[in-house]
Sequence to fold (288 residues):
Amino acid sequence: MMKVSAAAPGVRAILTSEAAKGRSAMGVHRGSVRTVLGTERPGLRLLGLPHSGGRAEGFTCWRDALPAAFPGTAVELCAAQYPGHGDRLAEPPREDVGTIAEEIVADLTRLPPADLLLFGHSFGSAVACEVARRCPGAGIDVLLLVASSAWAPGDPARPPRDEHLLPDEELWGRLVALGGIAPDIASQTELRDLLLPAMRADIAAHERYLGCPDPGSLHCDVHVCMARGDLLVPVSAGRYWGRLTTGNTSVDIRRGAHFHVFDDPALLLEDLARRVSTHTKGGSSAHE
Fold:
């Protein structure tokens, strides 16, 4: 789901202007991949894959905490910008996870080589699955896939949902209730009308992908981050992810709600750094 924390007056004009210029607020435009924090010769590339309606800029809150979390490691922090989002607002959004992933992998192959840590939040976890599936064929080594606040594709315990078919006001209202829209902007009709088409496309792509009985096998290690207060995805949903990979699987139960990954980036990144250094150790575990 989407998280919108602030909006300035004239948001439509501002965003469409940036999209027309092909610019990102982070300044480095690499197709679908944006650089949040760069390094000359990265040893590790951390790629954030946003939630439904999310923008690459959402991962800028991780930038300050990254060097302390990965001391002595040349880590490049990147984030994906999906079509129809952020500085790609003028492009039509996609309703197919595989199509989104194909573009991301193609753009990753144009970057300097580095081990890849995939972090997918909510809808981004589905995109991360498809990116991870395609990376070996593109010569990219996926060190670890992190799935955050997301059902695993094909999980029979997941209740069927068709939220992408809801009327605009009802869909927006559900997002507000989930905590994805700040109360001070929830009533801004212009913002709602601007963002809902891409949000609806993301939700449609996500719901269709989650319903796939066999989304394909993964071969990388998978770490799952769930939150105790998540009203959208219960912590029990973390268990099924182990069935999707031949690699090791671990599950972490964190404090917070659905958007917990933006609450305390320092602790999250420190945990990811520990897991990167030990991900080859076998076993499946759960941590408080």
